Amino acid sequence: MSENLQPISVGDFFSPQLRSPAKQQSCELKRFTHAHFVEVIPFERRACSIRTSNYHQGPSIISLTKDQLERYRHQLSMPGMTKEKQERLISSSCLLVAGDAPLETTIKHLIAAGVGKIIVIGEAFSLSAMSAIASHAGNLDVTVEFHQLPASGVTSGDDHQVSESIIENVDLVVEASLDWQFKLRLCDFCMRLGVPMIHSGSSGLRFQIFTMVPGKSACLRCALPRAGIDDFPITPVERSTFAPIATCAGALMASESIKLLANLGASQGNELWKVDGLSGEIEIIRGLDPRQDCPDCGRASRPR
User: Fold this and answer.
1) Is the pTM of this model over 0.70?
2) Mean pLDDT of the chain, nearest integer
3) What structural domains does the chain harbor?
């Protein structure tokens, strides 16, 4: 078992300082009933517990039950949404790389939408906030796993093995990491494995979102400089996003995630959104296609 990922339970985050004994007991009891969706699977069992699928092939499809038809009644009434697309959501899996605040909004919407398996990795502080949100957004069709990374971030020589072993078993990666070097490594893994990744970066009143689809999009190393972002911090940055901006960014990431997983609508696979909440300006950088001379996105775009 790798030492970089430590399986933890949602109950670990409900400390006496944060919750009353009665509420603590209620949360602990929920962990052992079918009414609570959160499940923590030890790392060594994860490979046989997670369905392996490929984005290009799509997840295996199930048939909606009567209860599920009622649960997603409003969602199924949206333009473009069908029973088949909802079935794809329930059969899909998503990796959330926690760090900055936007993912706290993203996970709430993914659970409500019925994304079948959500794996969250991050440091204890980020997981604490996300687990509290997840515990109040239960959905019987959704399983959430939390895996804690070392406090120093993923910087050891074993991060390559840990990251690839998780990514190859999911349909989508959504990252809001505070470690820019880890962002770039995630991008490399996703390009090599053919798994789409939604990138976000935010600070203060500004944020950016880029949906990277292997074969259609440039990688982060190529896309960000073309969007005017040339410098990548060597060490992890601090959480500094204004809460309303984080909520907006998280909701957009959730919407894009649902579209990709359900094959709903058009994905902004070669566009980067830059939003400035102070000036009210929204800039969309288009044409971020793969570069044929790039060993990452160029390779992913070549016929196999």
Assistant:
1) yes
2) 76
3) 6-301 (3.40.50.720)
